[in-house]
């Protein structure tokens, strides 16, 4: 167990180094705040026995009975977002300006960093990689891409907000708070690219000054339209 922990710590440190030496620095105002030292608490999760998160039929299972299930829930959403932005940067929409390419590339790097952090921290407890379905998205259209980006970012923020109360570990809750703040920065930027000055409009920030929150069931229902892999859910919180 000791050797396994030491190896996982080394791998995590390598991930951190790649995050902080990657092209993320190109646009410094989009500060990445997710996978620093606080995330090292997740390493303990990798030492737990394998769980049946990946059934033999190719589906995956999200079991919300414990923090590992919630972390896998976040991992699933980060997989979706990372896959989307990878495709956006790989096939830029028609007439994409240089500054928008730089900004969307930064967001891609953040989402990939989030995805890889959860994958490596969860280790053998992680669900399998998800197969996505982006057939509804026209990647050649700026309106389609930014509209989808807005929907994904708003969904991600609301998902972390809704899951916060379910997390038992203070360390995990701190990590989730760091990641959701980055997702909110993304959401604000995308909204301003669509319509300048709309970064915190009343469709997401309510009259009481609080952001939107969604329960896992609602989030998964929305996300399922973009995921081919069947997701089984147990112990779904109300």
SSE order and pairing:
Blueprint lengths: L1 H20 L38 E4 L3 H24 L7 H25 L19 H22 L6 H25 L21 H8 L7 E4 L4
Parallel strand pairs: 1-2
Helix pairs in contact: 1-3, 2-3, 2-4, 3-5, 4-5, 4-6
Would you write up a description of this structure?
The protein is mostly helical. The chain has one domain (about 1-25, about 35-235): Up-down Bundle (Ferritin), CATH 1.20.1260.10. It has six helices and two strands. Helix 2 (about 65-90) packs antiparallel against helix 4 (about 140-165), helix 3 runs antiparallel to helix 5 and helix 4 (about 140-165) packs antiparallel against helix 6.
Task: Provide tags for this entry.
mainly alpha, disordered N terminus, 238 residues, Ferritin, two-stranded parallel ribbon
Q: Please give the CATH architecture.
A: Up-down Bundle
The top-level CATH class is Mainly Alpha
Question: Structural class from helices and strands?
Answer: mainly alpha
Task: Please state the average pLDDT score.
Answer: 83
As a percent range, the share of strand residues is under 5%
- Largest beta sheet: what is the strand line-up? 1-2
Indicate the low-confidence ranges by residue numbers: 1-6, 8-13, 19-50
**Gyration radius, to the nearest Å?**
17 Å
| Helix percentage | 40-55%
| H and E string | HEHHHHHE
| CATH-assigned homologous superfamily | Ferritin, core subunit, four-helix bundle
Compose a concise summary of this entry.
By secondary structure, this protein is mostly helical. It has 6 helices and 2 strands.
